[in-house]
């Protein structure tokens, strides 16, 4: 196995989102840094900080030059960053020293690398929006369609009271609605240029530094932070926390699907399943298992990124490198989890017969709570609870259904509504449909079509 399954040609289709992974290749990083260097020169030319003719030449070269990432490796073990080598290669490849001397004027390596990262994170989050839209759309359809499909509600792994499959789909999707609503503020916080110079003061650019930063932000379509964020890593930490919440919500969905598809339960059919190498009857819940695994992995990676918020003084190497080790995997895991969840949400088929069988299993004891509350209208509630508990014990001991024993014990009571699965759903159908409406509103928000 490779050091990271996300980079593995064997495991990448299971655990990695290829579109996101491409944004974290060496080639993508070099291309993004070149774009930043070109945009910086153009901003400095517009501000009169460097000759406009040189700014135009540098900007044009940044779009045309091809620099081999491998050629930047020399010296990174000493400087920890590839920007000095990139600048040297850029200047050499331009073959115009009178213009090339202005490349990277007044900036520092972290400015170029953080801004280049931000350009790629913008594409990461565009992919996130796309897949989040797909998941919410599919879960809204499941919730609407199956709002009143009764199934066993389970707490601590035990049958509790009836719920509906639509309500379960809503439980999977409701956290995603909140996250979708928080995506725009996250992007506003995160998608900003970095330009602070050696110690965050932009001293090399003099009085024109603020104008250059504003021009650079406009040229790249990013926000102007109004100052240096070399050591203010909260936006990166916020992205990691967001990804952890996304994968966590989807991990719950994966865990539920694994349990509901177990032999002996079989209340759902997955759109795709894995075969065993030796047992021909097996249909392994591979995609739900991957969701749970990605959630657990992201939690661990998130710890590294949250700890890396402690960047000391004006610049910090170790904390910054800590981000490099974890952030790409966090982004890849988030978007792969969303992709898997969309596939599952679009293709899950509930097994209504199995769900009804589970509701009537175990002597119909799932209706015990409803019976006790019904009887509480006719006797003190403690007495009602005690009498229902006694009936439950008899049902097990005599291998009889609770509904039959209740009818015999309370012949003057109309107990049909108590033991009707649909009548016992409470707010489950309403909650399912309310979620569907909220999910569609969130999708409109993501697409920019909300009123």
From TrEMBL:
Asked if the keyword Membrane belongs to this entry, the reply reads no
Residue ranges constituting the Adenylosuccinate lyase C-terminal domain according to the UniProt record? 363-436
Q: Which UniProt keywords apply?
A: Lyase
Which domain of life, per UniProt?
Bacteria
Q: Which InterPro entries match?
A: AdenyloSucc_lyase_C, Fumarate_lyase_fam, Fumarate_lyase_N, L-Aspartase-like
A single Gene Ontology MF term assigned here is: lyase activity
Which family does the UniProt entry place this protein in? Belongs to the class-II fumarase/aspartase family.
In Swiss-Prot or TrEMBL terms, this protein is called Adenylosuccinate lyase family protein
Q: Which species is this UniProt entry from?
A: Pelagovum pacificum
């Amino acid at each position: 196995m490779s050091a990271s399954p996300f980079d593995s040609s064997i495991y990448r289709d299971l655990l990695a989102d290829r579109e996101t992974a491409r944004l974290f290749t060496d080639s993508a990083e070099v291309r993004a840094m070149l774009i930043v260097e070109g945009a910086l020169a153009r901003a400095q030319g517009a501000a009169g900080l460097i000759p406009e003719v040189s700014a135009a030449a540098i900007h044009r070269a940044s779009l045309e030059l091809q620099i081999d990432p491998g050629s930047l490796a020399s010296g990174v073990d000493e400087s920890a960053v590839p920007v000095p080598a990139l600048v040297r290669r850029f200047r050499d490849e331009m073959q115009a020293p009178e213009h090339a001397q202005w490349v990277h004027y007044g900036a520092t390596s972290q400015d170029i690398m953080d801004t280049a990262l931000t350009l790629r994170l913008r594409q990461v989050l565009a992919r996130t929006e796309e897949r989040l839209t797909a998941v919410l759309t599919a879960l809204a359809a499941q919730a609407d369609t199956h709002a009143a499909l009764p199934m066993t509600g389970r707490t601590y792994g035990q049958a509790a009271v009836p719920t509906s499959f639509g309500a379960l789909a809503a439980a999977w999707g409701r956290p995603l609605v909140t996250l979708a609503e928080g995506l725009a503020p996250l992007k506003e916080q995160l998608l900003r240029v970095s330009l602070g110079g050696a110690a965050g003061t932009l001293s090399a650019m003099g009085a024109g530094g603020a104008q250059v930063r504003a021009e650079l932000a406009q040229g790249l379509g990013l926000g102007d932070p109004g100052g240096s964020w070399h050591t203010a890593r909260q936006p990166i930490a916020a992205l990691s926390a967001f990804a952890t919440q996304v994968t966590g919500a989807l991990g719950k969905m994966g865990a539920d699907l694994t349990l509901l598809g177990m032999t002996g339960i079989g209340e759902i059919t997955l759109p795709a399943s894995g075969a065993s190498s030796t047992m021909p009857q097996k249909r392994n819940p591979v995609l739900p298992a991957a969701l749970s695994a990605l959630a657990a992995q992201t939690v661990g990676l998130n710890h590294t990124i949250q700890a890396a918020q402690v960047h000391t003084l004006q610049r910090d190497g170790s904390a910054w490198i800590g981000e490099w080790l974890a952030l790409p995997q966090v982004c890849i895991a988030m978007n792969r989890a969303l992709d898997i969840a969309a596939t599952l949400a679009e293709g899950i088929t509930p097994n209504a017969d199995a769900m009804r069988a589970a509701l009537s299993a175990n002597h119909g004891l799932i209706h015990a709570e409803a019976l006790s509350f019904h009887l509480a209208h006719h006797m003190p509630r403690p007495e009602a609870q005690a009498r229902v508990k006694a009936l439950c014990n008899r049902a097990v001991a005599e291998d009889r259904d609770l509904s039959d024993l209740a009818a015999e014990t309370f012949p003057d009571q109309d107990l049909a509504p108590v033991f009707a699965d649909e009548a016992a759903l409470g707010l489950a159908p309403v909650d399912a449909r309310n979620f569907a409406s909220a999910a569609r509103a969130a999708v409109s928000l993501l697409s920019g079509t909300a009123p």
